[in-house]
Amino acid sequence: MTRGGWTEQRNSESDALLSALGSKYSAEILCAAGTPKSAQALSEDIEVPIATCYRRIEELVDAGLLECEGRTLSNEGRRTNIYRRTLDEIEVDFSSERPQFSQKRRTEAKNRLQDQLR
Predict the structure, then answer these.
(1) Three-class DSSP labels, the chain
(2) Which of 9, 65, 70, 92 is disulfide-compatible with 60, CB 3.0–4.6 A?
(3) Does the structure show a pLDDT above 60 at 46?
């Protein structure tokens, strides 16, 4: 369901979102992933071990909060995935029997504009 640019989540999606957001460092990763970044860059930006960063990235991708935008070559010549968050805002409503989530998705136009400003 959509209202004013906000999309409401179904119960199964809500469970995945709540689980992903409840993990340590998830919010920090989402904040840092406003522009495309590799797991290594995210790990360095928020000062978290790389193994932990990869686990959180997997949870966030599974929950639809982060997406792989493609691959690039690292400084060491390895192909690495580049990630960016899929939303800018999320709202949680605890007034019902189960938590209800609404999220404001990032538009492709905003991503392109932000990429040009970098």
Answers:
(1) CEECCEEECCHHHHHHHHHHHCCCCHHHHHHHCCCCEEHHHHHHHHCCCHHHHHHHHHHHHHCCCEEEEEEEECCCCCEEEEEEECEEEEEEECCCCCCEEEEEECCHHHHHHHHHHC
(2) 65
(3) yes
Closest CA to 73 of 65, 81, 62: 81
pTM attached to this predicted model? 0.74
Question: What's the CA angle centered on 115, arms 110 and 116, to 5 degrees?
Answer: 100
Start-to-end Cα distance in the chain: 33
Instruction: Evaluate whether 13 touches 111 at the Cβ level (below 8 Å).
Output: no
Distance CA 101, CA 110 (A): 22
